[in-house]
Amino acid sequence: MPNFATALTGESGENGVAKLVMERLGWCARRQGNPDVGIDMQIEVGAGDGDATARLLGVQVKSGPSAFKEPAADGSGWVFRMDLEHLDYWLNYPLPVILVLYDIDREVGYWQHITSQTVSDTGKGFKILVPNNQRIDADSADALAALAERAGANGLQEFLLQLPPSCAALLSALDREAPSLARRLARALVNGRTTPARTVQDLAAQAPETWPHTAWLILGQYAVEYEDRIGAIDCFIRIDATAEPEQRGRWTAFAGSMLSPTDPDRARELLTEASATPGGRLLGPIGLAILDHGLNVAPVPLPDIVLASADETERDPAIQRFLADQAQRAGDLNLSLEHHEKALRLAPDNTNQQLALAEILLRRPEGTPAARLMSDYRRAANLASSVRAGKRRWLGDSVPAAYLLQSALLLAEDVDRAFRVSRAQPDGEATDAEAASPKLAMHVARVAYEQGRPERAEPFAAIVEASDDHEARTMLAAVRARAEGSEGQESRWRDALAATADTGTQLMILGELADLGCWPLGELERLRDDQQLRPGMYDLIHARALTARGETRQAQVLLRRHLATNALAAERYVALLAADDKIDDAIAVCDAASSQFGGSRHDLQALDVLAGAEGRTEQLLTRAAGFLSRSGQPYSLRHHVRSRLLALHEQRRDWAAAERLSRDGLEEVIALLDDLHDGKVDQLSLPETASDDLQELKRGYVLMLITQQFNRGHTARALATFEEFAPEIREAFEAEIWLDLHRLHGWTQQDIVRAFELAEHGAFPEMLVGRILFTLVQTCEPDSTVTHAGSAESESPGAGTSSDDLDRIAIPPSLHEKITEAWNAHFQRRAAAEAPGQGSGMLSEQELTNRALPDYARQTLADAAIWEGKLPVGAASIVAGTPYLLAVAERRARILPIADPDPDIYRGELSAADASLGEPVSIETTALFVSAALLDQWVNIHPEFGSVLLAERAAHDIFMSHLTARALGGNVDYYRTDLSTLRSIPANTPAETLRRMRRHVTAVHSATQDCTVTHQLDLSALGAKAPRDINGPWPWLAPIALAVERGIALYSDDASIRAQARTYGVPAFGSLALLETLGTQRDVLPDRGMALALLFAHHAVDLPDVAGLIRNALNAGDATSGPVLINLARPTYWQVHTRDFAATVAGIVTPAYWRDPSSLAPLTSAIATGAAAAFADTASATALTAAVILTQCTTVTREAADIVVPIIRAIAAQHSADPIITLREMLVNALTDPVAPVRRSRTTAVQIVDHALRLHETGTE
C-alpha cells in the first residue's frame, strides 16, 4: 500500500490543481489533508447555477519534471509508471479516480481516468498514457462531469468481467480471504488471456508454497476454460496438496481422467491413488472404469461403489455429466438430458456443461412434440449464444459455441441467421476468429451448395480452402463436386470419409455415397455392428442407394418400415411419392410425420410438394396460411412462408390478400422491434443481432404494402403509408411508385427536394431519371410567384412543358436552376441516343397476330374483330399497348357498342336492370365511363344499387389509366418516346383531345371511390370459352368472373361483354336499359334526346333512334363527322332499312353533297361498307349504293363516277365481289325508266353509263 512518507510531497502541485479546478471549472476542490494514502483531493462537480451536486471525483496529482520524463512516442502525451499497489487502491476506490500531471512552470494540468482499460500491466507495475489534449479547463468540464456520474472503478469487478464465470466466482471468494492476492491474480489472468498456457505456467512457477487452495483452484479452472490440458493437470495435482482432508483426491481424479488418452499408465496411478481418498472415492473408480473400457462404444459399466452411493452422485456435477454421457451412449436421450440438467444446476458457471446441455437439446428423440422441440432448439440457441458472448468477452475459443448456435438455427430452419453466425461483421455477427473458422465456414458452405446457391457458398469455401484443416478441405472438395455434378464424386466422398472420425459426419458421407448408387458400404456395416446407428438409419441409407439405382419400389418398402420412428425416412418417402405424382399420399405422410416428430420441416416439405403439383394452388394457400397462424415459429421462418404466399397472391393478382399478408408481416416485425428495444431477447426467435434484419424486413413489408395498395388503385392510402414509414428508396420500381403517387396527389417543397435527390441518385435508368426531372420541371417554378392552376407555362430548351391543371410549387431559385439544368442535360442525352428512323410504335399485323389475344381473334386484326362483335373494345388496348380505360377514352376502337340492336335482348336487359336495383352488381369499366364521364349521371346511378363491386384488375387498370392521363397534361412529345404506355398516341393528337381524355379518365377514377374493390378468386369461372390465358390481365373479363363467382348481375356498356356474360348465365345490362328503368321507376332519367346525343357524339353505335341522330347531324352540317360515318358503316343500321334503302341513302347523301361536295367520298365509303356487311349479295349491295348516289344524289357523270366507283369496287373486293356489271345494268335501267323525269333511249343510256364508268377504257363489256 502507499506509505505516508511519500504522501507528504507534492504540495505545490496539489495547490496548482486545486486552483485550476476552482478558477477554470468553477468547482470545489477539497484537499485530503496530510498525510494522504493515495488520493490527494476530491473534486465536487458544480451545477450550472453554482449549486453543489454531491457528484465527486477522486484525484491523484503528480507534478514536477519526473511526471513528464517519458513522452509518448507519437507525441500524444506522457507515459506515467507506478506500482501495482497504487493501481489496486485506485481501481477499488469508491469514486472514479483521475490522475493529474501538473506542470508547475506553465500552471497546466493534464488528466486521465484510471480504469483497467486505460492502464497496462508491465510485470513490475503499470503504465498509463495521460493525453496532452485533456487539460483541467472548461473544455474538459463535460467529460469530467460525466465521469463524476459513474460509480467507482471497482478494479476486481472489472477484471472479473473479463474472465470465465467459474474463475470469477472463485476469485470473489479469494478476495474475502486474501484481497491483494485476488487482485494481483485477476490482473495477471486478464493480461495473459492471449497466451493462457504460458500464463498458467509462469504463475505456477512463481507461486509460493503458501498459496491457498483457492488460488490453485482458480489457476486450474482457468487452464480448463482456455483448453490448457497440461496446465490444468499440473494445477489439479497441486490442488489436492492444499485441499481440506475430506476434499483430497477429487482433483487428482480429474488429473488422471485428463491424462487417460495420452498417458494411460500415469493416469491409472493417479486414479488408483484418488480412489483411496475421501474426495476421489467415486471419481477414481469411474476414471478407472473408463480406462478399462477402452474404445468400446457401449456404455461404461458403473462401479459398484458408485451404484451404492446414490446420494453423493446426485450432488456431484462431474458424476452427473458422466451419467449423461453413458445414457447418450445407450441411446436414452431423455435420461441423458435429465443428467445434463442436474449437472448444470450443480455447476451453473461451467461453460463446457452449458454447451453439453445445448448439444443434447439439439438431439431430442424423434416423437418429441413440436412445441417442445422448438422450445428445446430455442433453449439450446440461448445457451450457445450466452457461452459465445462469454468466450468472446474473456477471449476464449468461441467457435464451438458458435457452431452449436449455428446448428440450432439450421434445425429451426433459420438459414439466413445461420449464415450470419459465420459471416464477419458488419454484414454478419462473427468475430474475426469465428469468421476464419473452417468448421463454421464448412457448415454453411455445405448448406448453400445443397440449396443450389454456389455464389453464396464460395466466400465460405474460400475460408476452408485457406485453412490447414484437412478434414474440412476434403469435405469441401466432395460437396463441391456433388454440387457441380463433376466426375470423381465417389472418390472425393471416400477421401472425406477417410479423413473424419466423427460418426455423424461419417453417416452424412455414407448417405452421399448411397445417392451415387454405391452399395454395399463397408463402413456402414461396421457402424451397424458397433451399434452406433439410430433405428432405421441403415435402411434409410440403403433406400437412398436403391433410389439412385432406379429401384424406387424397393426403396419405398424399406422406408415404410420406419415412417413412425425416423423423420428422415418419412422425408425421403414423401419425396418418392411426390415424384410418382401421389400428392395426396405425400401430404398425408407429411402430416403424420409433423404430428409424430414435431418441428416445421415436414410442414415445409408439404408446401414444397403442393407448390410443385398441378392444380394445388388453393390447397397450398390454405396450408401456408395455417402455418402462419401458429405461434412460436422463428420470425425468419414465418417470413419465408409469408413470402411464398405473397408471391402466389401476386401471381394471381389478388392484391387484397397480398396487402393483408404484407400488413400482418409489418405488424409482426414492428412488434419484434419493440420487444428487442425492451430487451426481450431470444437467440432463436429474437437475437440481439436481429435489429438490422428486422429493419430490412420492415422496409420490405412497407414497400410491398405500398405496391399492393398502389395496384389496387388505393393511391391515397399508398401515399399515406409512404409518408408514415418513409422507407428508403433503392430500386427503380420503388422510385417509380413514389413518383407516380406524388404526380397523382401533389407535391410539397420537401417532396421536390427528395425527388431531385432521386434523379441525382446515379443508379436509376435514364428513362426514370427523365420522368422525374420532367415532372419537376412541369411542377415547379422559382421564387414565390405561384401561378394559378392551368395558367402557367414553363419553357425549357428542347421541351415544352405546359400543364392544363397542375398546381405549381414555388421553390428556391437555386434549386429550380439545378432542376432545369439537369432536365436539359437529360433531354440532350436522350436526343443524342435516340435511334434514327423510329416508327410510331404501332404494331404490324404480324406483330398483332403474335400478341396474347384470345384464340378466336389471333388470325385477324383487332379492329375487324371488334367491329364484328367478336372482341370487346378493350382488345384495342392490347394492340395499342395502353391501359384499357385510356384506350376507351381515346376512342382507340373507334366505336362504343353500348346498345344491342336486337329488341328481344334489350327487353332482357331491361329486366336485368330492374332486378339489380337495390342489389350488389359487378361493374365493368365501360359502364363507369358512360355513366360518369359521358352522361355525368354516376351520382344518380350508384346509390340505386346495394353495392357496386369493382374487380381489382379493373380497378388497377383505371388507376394506371388515370396516372397515364395525368401525364398527358405535360409534354406529350417527350412521353411519346419514353413512356411505354403512351407509345401509340399519334404525334398530331390535338391538345383538346388530350384534355378531353384526361377529363374523362379522371371522372371514372373519381367514380371508383364509390365502388367496393373486390378480388375474384379465379377467372376459370369463365369456363372453356374464355380467352386461353385465363389468368391474363384482361380487366374487361374480370368483372364477368366476379359476377359468376358472386352470382350477381353485370353492368357493362360493351354489348359484346354483356353477350359473353350471358353465355355463363350472368344477367347483364347497360346504361341505356338502366336509365330507362330508372326513368320509369325513379324519374331520374336525363333528357333522352340529350343522353343519346352525347353517346352518339362519342361514337356509340346501334343506338335507338340512331337515324334521327344522323339526321340531326346532317342538318347541323356534320355529315362527315365520326359518329355519322361510323354508324353508317354499321351493318345493323342498314338491316333495319332494307325496304327503304334507296330513299334512306338519298336522304343522307343528297343534302350533304349539295352543301359540301367533298362529303361524297366519305359518305359513299361508310354506306357501302355497312351495306356490304348487311346483305348477302355484296356485289348487288355495293352496286345499288353507287347507283342511288349517281342517279339520285348527283348525276351520272364521269366526275361523280370517278369518286364513287373506285370506292365501291374496293369495298366489294374485300368480299371477293365485283359490282361493275351489276352497277352498269342498274344505271342503264334507271336512265331508261319510263317514269324518270328525263327518259333516255337505251343506246344513249348505254353511252352515258359507259362513258361515266370508263368501260371502253378498261375493256369491260
From TrEMBL:
This is DUF4365 domain-containing protein. It comes from Actinospica acidithermotolerans. Residues 785-807 are annotated as: Disordered. Residues 11-147 form the DUF4365 domain. Gene3D superfamilies: Tetratricopeptide repeat domain.
